[in-house]
Write a structure and sequence with these properties.
CATH class: Alpha Beta
Largest sheet: 6 strands, antiparallel
Protein name: DUF4442 domain-containing protein
Helix content: 25-40%
Number of strands: 6
Structural class: alpha+beta
CATH superfamily: Hotdog Thioesterase
Transmembrane segments: 73-90
Mean pLDDT: 94
Distance between the termini: 38 Å
CATH architecture: Roll
Low-confidence stretches: none
Order of helices and strands: HHHEEHHEEHEE
CATH topology: Thiol Ester Dehydrase, Chain A
Keywords: Membrane, Transmembrane, Transmembrane helix
Shape: globular
Strand order of the largest sheet: 1-2-4-5-6-3
């Protein structure tokens, strides 16, 4: 079992392996969600979901629950890998606003800037929790915003710096 634990520790912090594992995650398989890319530094992730018979709603557009699920874990996963084991990172809250019906392949791109990461490190240096807010847009093939998701994360340093 130790070899499995060691393998998992190594694999979950490798962007390509994480992408492959997420694409095999049963809820994503069932919804048709595909993680297209995770940058080597975990600062950019691209996700898409085509409209299929099994993920459309009663009126023939993308099911809202699937739209949210396609963007749910990524800011948390990105920060866990960027900040490392000295930090606790959790999803704390989310809000989704539907702007227009989703048709075709919808897409979301997550990015984290140096300034955002530095702000998180600065705000958590004392060991107090910080709750950064991130916004991601889900767009259709024409670039129209289908939904906007606001994620609030809980980030805390395990031990204060200094």
């Amino acid at each position: 079992m130790k070899w499995l634990r060691n393998w998992w520790r190594r694999v979950r912090h490798d962007p390509e392996w994480l992408r492959r594992l997420l694409n095999l995650y049963p809820p994503y398989l069932g919804a048709g969600v595909r993680v297209r890319s995770i940058s080597p530094d975990f600062r950019r992730v691209e996700v898409e979901m085509p409209l299929r018979w099994f993920n459309r709603n009663y009126v023939g557009t993308h099911f809202g629950g699937n739209l949210y699920s396609m963007v749910d874990p990524f800011y948390m996963l990105m920060l866990i890998n960027i900040l490392g084991p000295a930090y606790v990172v959790w999803d704390q809250a989310a809000e989704i606003v539907f702007r227009r019906p989703g048709r075709g392949t919808v897409r979301a791109v997550f990015t984290l800037t140096d300034a955002q990461i530095e702000a998180i490190r600065r705000e958590t240096a004392s060991g107090r929790p910080y709750r950064p807010r991130f916004t991601v847009q889900i767009t259709d093939p024409a670039g129209n915003v289908v939904a906007e998701v606001i994620k609030v994360l809980y980030v805390r340093r395990k031990e204060a710096v200094g």
